[in-house]
């Protein structure tokens, strides 16, 4: 299998902001060439510029794409393969509960249901579908999906911003998808794991903006409800991902790694 210098291409989805951007910085610091995918072109350009200014030698490619569309995903992976000639790491960070807050099942439209499942589950499935054949060529790959503590359900007013019912369902689906795919591809030298964050506040991004807009008392109540008494940092998530994509993690597959301050 050779050493890491033989395989240094990482694809990170959801990289326009938040956790995906922080994971991209971390993997760039570890010497990977980086492909950034997201719906939001402006955010992608911002992440790309930050990587280039911090790590001048790093090859970075940014592709704006809706990852719920199969043809678009197929094209994006063809483009990455043409540029880097290999994919060693895929981190499926894209997703979220959406921007429309829905708390009651009676208010949940089937359109919102489908959109949230598409953004989380379909995007993860499609990226794996087009990355795995490229990984199989080298008999090596590391895939990290993004679940959530919300897969176990949440009660009360705090937590997930958007439509939490399809969000919980989508993250539970990602757990099952991760465990099954891990078994299906293990003999090809590919590991598949998921990180399951609790409430994480990146330095910038949508979740940080929404949290900072809450009254101080609400912020304090949310922190107090977390057993660790605090929210997590994007660096703590990036460190978990860095382990799962390392060569040392070759016998770790099918794991759902909670990074949530003992919340789940
Ligand atoms: N931040 C947290 O507290 C937290 C907690 C648990 C799980 N998570 C999960 O971690 C991941 C990252 O969270 P974040 O806080 O950085 O969220 P975020 O909303 O800041 O970033 C998510 C990114 O995914 C992109 N995206 C969504 N749907 C897409 C699609 N169809 N095609 C392409 N891009 C798409 C968005 O444009 C956005 O840039 C998500 O999967 C989220 O569900 C986050």
UniProtKB/TrEMBL annotation:
SUPFAM superfamilies: NAD(P)-binding Rossmann-fold domains. Pfam families: adh_short_C2 (PF13561). PANTHER family: OXIDOREDUCTASE, SHORT-CHAIN DEHYDROGENASES/REDUCTASES FAMILY MEMBER. Belongs to the short-chain dehydrogenases/reductases (SDR) family. This is 3-oxoacyl-[acyl-carrier-protein] reductase. It comes from Streptomyces plumbiresistens. The gene is fabG_2.
